Amino acid sequence: MASRRFTAEELQAARHHVVPDVVAGGLSVLFCGINPGLMSAATGHHFARPGNRFWPVLHLSGFTPRQLAPSEQEELLSYGLGITNVVARATARADELSDDEFREGGRLLAAKVELLRPRWLAVVGVTAYRVAFGDRKAAIGPQERTIGDTRVWVLPNPSGLNAHWTARTMADEYARLRVAATEDRSP
């Protein structure tokens, strides 16, 4: 299904909208974006902006058997995967969010994780994770922190603006999490 083009006015009208989570209890991995972009808010689908590499990387890393379109996000639940965000409101750029919003988002995210109890929380964006959880030294990869029984992994941000990572190198890091999530069958 081809995505339709939105006018600048339509995208601006989506500012501050919330994109509903794709979640269920007991997921294997709950992916957590920074916050929805305007395209995601306009469509109601996570990681909807053309050029965002989340969906291709999810497939390249082996999490999904084929590349899903953002409009197929609900299919993630059948693979034991879900999506949420650190901050719920949509903006054009993540740098429009304040540190206070990130910290409050981290608090709300921790409560959501305690309720849903995924095996892994995968935050896609090390800077957002550092601010939200007050861990200035966090690096990409598994973290010491847990939220209840949920382990935490920080992944590279799949935004097309993140030029430090290619789709392939990102997929390699996502695959490390997939292997850990497959091997870790503890509740």
TrEMBL record:
Recorded GO MF terms: DNA binding; pyrimidine-specific mismatch base pair DNA N-glycosylase activity; uracil DNA N-glycosylase activity
Keyword tags: Activator, Chromatin regulator, DNA damage, DNA repair, Hydrolase, Isopeptide bond, Transcription, Transcription regulation, Ubl conjugation
InterPro entries: MUG/TDG, Uracil-DNA_glycosylase-like, Uracil-DNA_glycosylase-like_sf
One of the GO biological process terms: base-excision repair, AP site formation
CDD domains in the record: UDG-F2_TDG_MUG (cd10028)
Transcription keyword on record: yes
Name by which UniProt lists this protein: Mismatch-specific DNA-glycosylase
Organism the protein comes from: Streptomyces thermolilacinus SPC6
